[in-house]
């Protein structure tokens, strides 16, 4: 895969992840994060509920939300899936490592993707 397109300054590239947090486009974040194509935010209410995804809905430039659930993968609750779908956002749950890798690939494809990531502890 050609990584050069990822190196544009306006893109948020996930460079590293670990139990203590994430390195995204040169910045280190402790704890959970919401990563959009153009910015990264600390995910203050990292509960996996419809209310905790209000910043994703408000962002408005997201077609797909990748949900990194730490070291485990669980099913996304139907109520959460429906709440996001009502705003035109599909959601896929997976382990955090897979979410980070998938996000970077979709970002390189210029897709309207975001990631909600819990550290893999």
Low-confidence stretches: none
Q: Topology as H/E string?
A: EEEEEHEHEHE
The Cα radius of gyration reads 13 Å
Biggest beta-sheet profile: 5 strands, mixed
**Tally of DSSP β-strands:** 8
General form: globular
* CATH topology label: Hypothetical Protein Mth938, Chain: A
Alpha-beta classification: alpha/beta
CATH class: Alpha Beta
> How many separate domains make up the residues?
1
CATH A-level architecture: 3-Layer(aba) Sandwich
Percentage of residues in DSSP E strands: 25-35%
Helicity range of the residues? 10-25%
- Within CATH, the superfamily carries the name MTH938-like
The neighbouring-strand order within the major sheet is 5-4-8-6-7
**Average pLDDT reading:** 91
Distance between the termini: 29 Å
Number of helices: 3
Commentary on this structure:
The protein is α/β, with parallel strands linked by helices and 121 residues long. It has a single domain, classed as Hypothetical Protein Mth938, Chain: A (3-Layer(aba) Sandwich), CATH 3.40.1230. Helix content is 22%, strand content 30%. The protein is built from three helices and eight strands; from the N terminus they run E-E-E-E-E-H-E-H-E-H-E. The strands form two sheets. The chain has a five-stranded mixed β-sheet, sandwiched between helices. A three-stranded antiparallel β-sheet has the order 1-2-3, with helices on one face. A hairpin with a 2-residue loop joins strand 2 and strand 3. The longest helix is centred in the C-terminal third of the chain and has 13 residues. The radius of gyration is 13 Å and the shape is globular. It starts with 13 loop residues before the first strand and ends with a strand. The relative contact order is 0.25. The mean pLDDT is 91.
């Amino acid at each position: 895969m050609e990584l050069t397109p990822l190196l544009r300054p306006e893109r948020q590239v996930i460079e590293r992840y670990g139990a203590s947090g994430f390195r995204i486009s040169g910045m280190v974040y402790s704890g959970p994060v919401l990563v959009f194509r153009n910015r990264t935010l600390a995910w203050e209410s990292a509960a996996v509920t419809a209310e905790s995804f209000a910043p994703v809905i408000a962002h408005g430039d997201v077609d797909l939300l990748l949900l990194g659930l730490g070291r485990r993968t669980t099913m996304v609750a139907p109520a959460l899936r429906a709440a996001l779908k009502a705003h035109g956002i599909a959601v896929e749950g997976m382990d955090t490592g897979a979410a980070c890798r998938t996000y970077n690939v979709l970002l390189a494809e210029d897709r309207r993707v975001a990631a909600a990531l819990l550290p893999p502890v």
